[in-house]
Specification:
The chain is an alpha+beta fold. It has helices at residues 2-30, 40-57, 71-78, 80-97, 121-137, 164-180, and strands at 61-68, 103-108, 111-117, 140-142, 145-147, 151-157, 186-187. A five-stranded mixed β-sheet has the order 2-3-1-6-7, sandwiched between helices. The chain has a two-stranded antiparallel ribbon with strand order 4-5.
């Protein structure tokens, strides 16, 4: 009887550890370990949710791509640890500047995507410019050395596109236009 109770206790302890590991794995699949923002997988789910709300309830949204300018140069000059510190800080800046309904995610490498529900193109561009200016003026310090960091942004509004995929493609195209035009800017330009 005592042996059975010990076995049951060991199994119960093991189950608790496995449940905890599963909870952590679920969290890690939703939150980028480095930046603290949504992973690409979680971002994909949120994009689907935004698209469903758009189709069903006509709740519009805009997309904002944000990409660090000359990130490879930063990594090559200051090291990957400095690059990680900058990415982590930019994740925090994006979360601070976003509304609670917005979804900030790491799209890949040094590229972030923000889903902005109930946001027009001009409002999305205003958000992107606020982010861009905040990052440009932020004092990034690594090992007592100041690192100048800028970002380029591309914005699209879902209502002006045929599909979610087209909206993503349009925001990405705007991002590359911002980079081609000299970086540290937002496209489209709305006056």
């Amino acid at each position: 009887m005592v042996t059975n109770q010990q076995t049951i206790h060991k199994m119960h302890t093991r189950i608790k550890k496995l449940e905890s590991a599963l909870t952590n794995a679920r969290l890690e699949s939703k939150e980028d370990f480095l930046t603290g923002v949504a992973t690409k997988r979680a971002l994909s789910s949120e994009l689907k949710r935004a698209e469903e709300a758009y189709i069903r309830y006509k709740i519009g949204y805009s997309l904002c791509f944000i990409d660090l300018d000359h990130f490879k140069v930063i990594n090559d000059t200051y090291g990957h640890e400095a690059g990680d510190v900058i990415l982590r800080t930019i994740g925090k800046i994006l979360q601070k500047l976003s509304r609670q309904v917005d979804v900030v995610g790491r799209y890949g490498g040094e590229e972030f995507l923000v889903v902005l529900p109930s946001t027009s193109l001009s409002q999305g561009v205003a958000f992107a410019n606020k982010v861009r200016q905040s990052i440009e003026h932020f004092k990034f310090i690594y090992k007592s050395e100041r690192i100048n960091v800028t970002v380029s942004c591309g914005v699209s509004e879902r209502a002006k596109q045929k599909s979610l995929e087209a909206a993503i493609e349009a925001a990405d195209k705007m991002l590359y236009e911002a980079k081609a035009a000299g970086r540290n800017q937002t496209k489209p330009v709305i006056s």
